[in-house]
Amino acid sequence: MLFYDTSDLIDGEIYLRLDRTAGENKEKAYLPAYYFTIIRSLDRAEIGKCDLRIGHNENTKYGGNIGYEVFEEFRGNKYATKACKLMFSLAKKHGMDYLIITCNPDNIASRKTCEHSGGELIDILDIPSWHEMSKTRKTTCQYRMKL
């Protein structure tokens, strides 16, 4: 798979700094992915991490195409929503017309991020025992974002 230039993943408040890419791992059913640090433009503070998995498979049904974390001292500023929206443009370059974002049903902040990013709650799924996420939680909210 071809990885694209990501220097355009910037808005007036944050930008995504590419840390690394990873190719597909068929044995583990991992999709190709981009891994970023979320940087606040004003002072270049590292405020979180995010990643984008390209494509869809059984893993993305439960784990989604996007992962994000905003460090505690920077929460409450909608940085995760802004990062998701920046990654939407990258997903479009790869020909994707929708993305799945999942989160713990008890994580209200993450659910709001999904909703503010334009996601529609599709289902609350039981995580099968074979899935890696089953070690940390039993259910997941599945949101779908049309691109």
Low-confidence stretches: none
The biggest beta sheet, please? Answer: 4 strands, antiparallel
User: What's the gyration radius in Å?
Assistant: 15 Å
Architecture, according to CATH? Answer: 3-Layer(aba) Sandwich
Termini separation comes to 21 Å
Spatial strand arrangement across the major sheet: 1-2-3-4
Task: Sum up the overall morphology in one term.
Answer: globular
User: Based on helices, strands and strand pairing, what is the structural class?
Assistant: alpha+beta
Percentage of residues in DSSP E strands: 25-35%
Quick one: CATH superfamily? Gcn5-related N-acetyltransferase (GNAT)
* Number of helical stretches of at least 4 residues: 3
Count of distinct structural domains: 1
Q: What name does the CATH topology carry?
A: Aminopeptidase
How much helicity do the residues have? 10-25%
Order of helices and strands: EEEHEHEHEE
Structural overview:
The protein has helices spanning 58-63, 79-93, 108-116; strands at 14-22, 33-40, 46-53, 66-70, 98-103, 120-126, 139-146. The chain has 147 residues and is an alpha+beta fold. A four-stranded antiparallel sheet has the order 1-2-3-4, covered by helices on one side. A hairpin with a 5-residue loop joins strand 2 (33-40) and strand 3 (46-53). The longest helix is centred in the middle third of the chain and has 15 residues, at 79-93. The chain is globular and about 45 Å long. 33% of the residues are buried.
